Amino acid sequence: MQFVVPQFIEVESKIIGPISARQFVIMLVGAGLLFLLYKFAPFWLLIVGGAMVFGTVVMFGFVKIHSQPFHWFFLSLVQTLRRPRLRLWFRDEFIFREKAPKKEKDQAKVVARAKVPVSNSRLAEMALLVDTGGAYMQPELIQKPTRAESSVVAPAVAAPAPVQPNQPPQQPPETPQVSVNNPQ
Questions:
Q1: Which stretch of DSSP H or E encloses residue 6?
Q2: Calpha distance 152→51 (Å, rounded)
Q3: Burial class (CB within 10 angstroms; exposed 0-12, middle 13-18, buried 19+) of 161
């Protein structure tokens, strides 16, 4: 079974002889404008305005530029004239602004660390940190809570012993609950 493929789909349908529907509507609008000029304008304005209306109707109805109807060309011209001729990219507008500073409470907890070259033992410690899901921390980075930060009862935390490479981490011994505010 063969299908009919439509051809010449870009050609406007002719409704009245060689005139398409778009051209017919444009001619009707032009005739209406000429009628209004005839009824309400003096004769000299009818002649000048009639010539302008006739030229506009012919341009928009029948002229093609680069095989495009004139109204498409006219719309493209208006869009081009509305845009600036020189396009500049101002980089300052696209630089991301820094985030708002953190609250003072959050800044007190941040520990600044100097960038240290990674050695084999440090690499092993980092691997242990990743393997334990962040539970293992180096002894020098563990901070003891101050009285303002601690609650009434806090567990005593013992710093874990440094881990040698290729050895599993040791479990810290269980410690009893110690009151921070009331030392014994």
A1: none
A2: 96
A3: exposed
Name the 3-class secondary structure at 39.
helix
Give backbone dihedrals phi and psi of 66, rounded to 5 degrees, phi first: 55, 45
pLDDT digits (tens, 9 = 90+) for 96-134: 555 555 566 555 555 556 665 667 777 788 888 888 877
The encoded tokens of residue 184 equal 């014994």
Q: What is the pTM of this model?
A: 0.43
Both tokens assigned to 147: 């009285």
Please write the tens of the pLDDT for every residue from 137-154.
666 555 555 555 555 554
What are the CA-CA distances from residue 148 to residues 102, 104, 181 (Å)? 19, 14, 10
Q: Which amino acid is at 60?
A: F
Burial tier of 41 (Cβ tally within 10 Å: 0-12, 13-18, 19+): middle
- pLDDT tens digits, one per residue of 15-44: 888 899 999 999 999 999 999 999 999 999
